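Schema walk-through. Below, the input block comes first and the output block second. Nothing else is stored per chain. Lengths vary across the set, and this one has 511 residues.
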Amino acid sequence: MQGFIRMIPKAADSWTLREAAHLLNRAGFGGSPDAIRAFHTLGRKGAVESLLSAQDAPDEFPSPDWANKEQALASFSEHRERMRQMKMPTAEMTPQKTEETRRRLRKEQQIQDRQRGLEAQSWWVNRMLRSKAPLREKMTLFWHDHFATSLQKVKQPIIMVWQNDLFRRHATGSFKNLTHAVMMDAAMMRYLDTQDSRKGKPNENFAREIMELFTLGEGHYTENDVHEAARAFTGYQFSLNTGAVQHNKRRWDETPKTIFGKTGKFNGADVIDLIFEQPQTARFMAGKIWEFFAYENPPPRAVEALGDTLRESNYEMVPLLREIFLSKEFYGETAMGTQIKCPIQYIIQLHKELEIVDSPRGFAHNAQQQLGQVLFMPPNVAGWDWGKSWINTNTLLSRYNLAGVLCGINGKGEATQPMRGKKNPRFAKKRSMTQDKSGPDYQKIAPTDLRENPKKLVDSLVLRFFHQPLPANTSASFVEYAESKKGASFTDKQVAELCHLMLSTPHYQLC
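--- output ---
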């Protein structure tokens, strides 16, 4: 019946601190005990609405200077000139000199792109850590994985940052509008070679991926749909001068195509409209969003109900997210404390729970590399593998070591202090992950009165890091450790070691 929406059962109005922490973890990147308590005072509905409506000030997190429009145009011009020099050697240059010049220019470009890629990662990590709109950043991460493109192929960090901004602007908006925008996105065009698709030589990459990975899923389209859609997606080009995308109708196949049983002189935008007429599109996206925020393999009835919500709202994401975050199932045993933290979640949440505002120099980049999730570099068009794929012997050990770095523990189990004064170049490489940081404020994390009672100290830290009581034998082992360390006074070093012990457990890998 038109207008009728099946709803999944709602959670009770009352809620617990643990549920507040769960929502903040999943819809954002967690928070300190004070942040969770403040969030809890809003009530379940108020907390959900605060997440859905929060925004950062427009100038709060400016993009890197080189991604601003004016400087970007200059960079495009420099890049174009560099390419011209590589392709057009002068008559006076010998073949050997020509090749040396090409290698030098190529290396200069690679160095610049690599540096800008690192700056883009740092910029986004900082934004995730400090943003007052955590759900918007979490959804930006979701779209980055859903509409995956990689700097390794795209090459130009500028258009990757522009794409990131596109995902953020549409983060909780219309999935349909975002899909239209992605079709005209320069990074996606470079990644899936759309700019080379023209009348008579259509490229099927985008046509296939938009159906299989972005909107419908396998088994809900035919090979003929892909072939015909590829012809519709011809003629889209981006300018090497400005990065802007336009539809060149001289390269477009204007002849009739038959897609999903309908025939017409379709262009790319028409194909997307046809895709969003398919009921499967809403089911596909509703299921994927549920799995991202709640748990894998949701019940079919829930997917149908959430799909109804998405379709009836014309693919606006807010009604779907609201229904998920207010549902009883989202706070059930299957959902709470069962999701393996992806590396980005692990990195940001660790900072928030240790109340570290500034990431140590080089930490975030090294952590991403070690844990297997590098921003702006998903492994392929399908994005990252999630869940259990995040954890293996190497990445688990890396997580424990990285937690030690943030706790201020060096490789010998000793508490480290931030470097002061001039940096000694002899130790720069060795300590690159720990310098320039203030580290946790252990006097705040573990006040003096708590240190007098090891059990109370452990209980406080357990709630900080795990948001619920742990199995009795696990908590007892922490208390036993704390008691063994307690002497005349419980020092910051010993608190750091206790925190590191807790963070180096399988329990902490879940949220």
